[in-house]
Design goal:
The protein is an alpha/beta fold. It contains 15 helices and 15 strands. It binds iron/sulfur cluster (2 copies).
């Protein structure tokens, strides 16, 4: 899933009314009690945004935690000001601040219409062209959850296909764009190191000829990402690397052994230590219901090994998805934007996020997002040149959207574009965080993508905890 509001996620802020000494930094406004605007001087009344969630707090009974699902902004507000917000009697300065962070709007019905049309409006203005390139389906690991049923093996992107990929990029480029990003996937993308280098040289030179910036990312098992490889790739535009660790050594080695059967944990840690000062490295990992608590030991290990929060760009663990048989999608893509609505996961996610945040590592936070399927200028190119809209659909019959030879066909019906344009989603406070959910999870659940992957229950149960964790560990420092 792509962050369609890139750049806005950082608008998250804490605003708190001053009451003597405060544990929070830089409150953005001070609102003396009882100084609301007299009704006769009121501007046209602003209304609370439709995309507003409010939560009470045991620790601060006089305050409410407000979250805008539209702007990902966070506010701690005293109840008195909250009431003024409901009644349209805010002071001008409070009104200006709350409008800026999306908590109040001039017209809620228009706001809802605009949100339904948001992706249609944004797509033509998207300044980025993003291609996920699956360079091979081979790997030097033999992870049980990835290599079942013999769907993977000695399958590599050929140079002729890479040339067609570059032609495809040139064809899709538009003058208003200023960013070209390629995400290299596998199998194991570093088994195709030469191709990463040749594609990147050509893509960089093309982007620069158009006044744009080229960068690329890698999703790798980490065993081949040595300091030397990092040094070779950074000048070509390597921006970030995601490396998977499936728990502390004893668990990781069981789930992610080399083909020889030997454990890979020590090799990966050695490589991360060597490369973490040269490239941004994020850690991902796949947990199960039985082993998630042990991931806290991995975090302790990372800290003891000197891989402290300043050395890693992020840490995020995801549940192993029960994949359909013969699933050829990249194993590590489970760490993409897939989320599963199962009760045990709420506990597991909250536990792991707490463990990550309390040690000072960065991790994901609730922000506006839509399925990549809905983003026009994002494509997945498989090693054989077949095009998809999400890596999770690779190899699944009926979900290809074209190929590098013949181009992109009409996928609006096969991928159910705009599935969120229905009455329930139009009224839903979580629409900006969800846009109808994950098509792949609908497929895993129902065998087709005709229904929504509704996350309402999940957000109802989880959002408050996530926000309160952020306040505790991100904003109170
Ligand atoms: S189908 Fe799911 S995994 Fe794929 S891009 Fe959409 S939300 Fe992400
Ligand atoms: S799928 Fe469910 S959670 Fe998502 S926007 Fe629609 S109603 Fe809301």
């Amino acid at each position: 899933m792509l962050d369609l509001l890139r750049g806005r996620a950082d608008t998250a802020q804490i605003i708190k009314k001053k009451r003597g000494a405060t544990a929070y930094q830089a409150p953005l406004f001070f609102h003396p009690p009882g100084h609301h605007y007299p009704p006769r001087l009121r501007k046209p009344t602003m209304q609370p945004s439709h995309y507003l969630k409010s939560y009470s707090s045991k620790d601060s009974p006089d305050q409410l935690l407000l979250f805008s699902t539209k702007k990902a902004s966070v506010i701690l507000l005293d109840k008195e000001t909250f009431q003024a917000m409901q009644e349209g009697t805010l002071s001008p300065s409070d009104e200006a601040t709350l409008e800026k962070v999306g908590m109040i709007v001039p017209d809620r019905d228009r706001e809802k219409q605009a949100m339904l049309a948001f992706l249609d409006d944004k797509n033509p203005q998207n300044r980025m062209l993003n291609v996920i390139a699956v360079l091979n389906l081979d790997c030097n690991f033999a992870c049980p959850y990835c290599f079942e049923e013999g769907v993977k093996g000695n399958l590599y992107m050929m140079e002729a296909t890479a040339s067609r990929l570059l032609a495809f990029i040139r064809d899709k480029w538009r003058d208003h764009k200023d960013k070209l990003i390629i995400d290299f996937y596998g199998g194991e993308p570093l088994l195709s190191l030469d191709l990463i280098q040749s594609i990147s040289k050509a893509a960089k030179s093309f982007a620069e000829s158009r006044g744009a910036v080229y960068s690329f990312t890698l999703v790798t098992n980490g065993s081949l990402f040595t300091g030397k490889v990092a040094d070779a790739l950074v000048p070509l535009g390597l921006k970030s690397v995601k490396i998977t660790l499936d728990g502390p050594a004893e668990i990781h080695n069981q789930y992610r052994p080399f083909k020889s059967g030997a454990g890979s944990f020590d090799t990966i840690i050695k490589n991360i230590k060597a490369a973490c000062d040269r490239a941004k490295i994020g850690i991902g990992g796949n947990f199960t219901r039985d082993n998630y608590k042990k991931f806290a030991l991995l975090l302790d290990y990372l800290q003891d090994a000197g891989l402290t929060p300043d050395k890693l760009s992020s840490v995020k663990f995801d549940a192993v998805v029960n994949r359909p048989k013969n699933d050829a999608a990249p194993g590590d893509y489970a760490g993409g934007c897939i989320s599963i609505n199962e009760p045990w996961l709420l506990e597991a996610e909250a536990f792991l996020r707490e463990e990550i945040l309390k040690r000072g590592y960065k991790t994901s936070k609730p922000i506006p997002m839509a399925c990549m399927v809905e983003t026009t200028d994002s494509y997945v190119v498989n090693y054989d040149g077949v095009l998809y809209k999400c890596p999770a659909f690779i190899g699944k019959k009926g979900f290809a959207v074209g190929d590098l030879e013949s181009g992109v066909g009409d996928y609006s019906e096969t991928l159910k574009l705009g599935i969120y344009k229905n009455r329930d989603c139009a009224e839903c406070v979580y629409l900006p965080l969800c846009f109808g959910g994950c098509r792949y999870m609908a497929y895993v659940r129902d065998g087709n993508i005709n229904k929504l992957d509704c996350k309402k229950e999940y957000f109802d149960a989880a959002l408050e905890t996530l926000l309160k964790q952020d306040i505790r560990y991100r904003f109170q420092k």
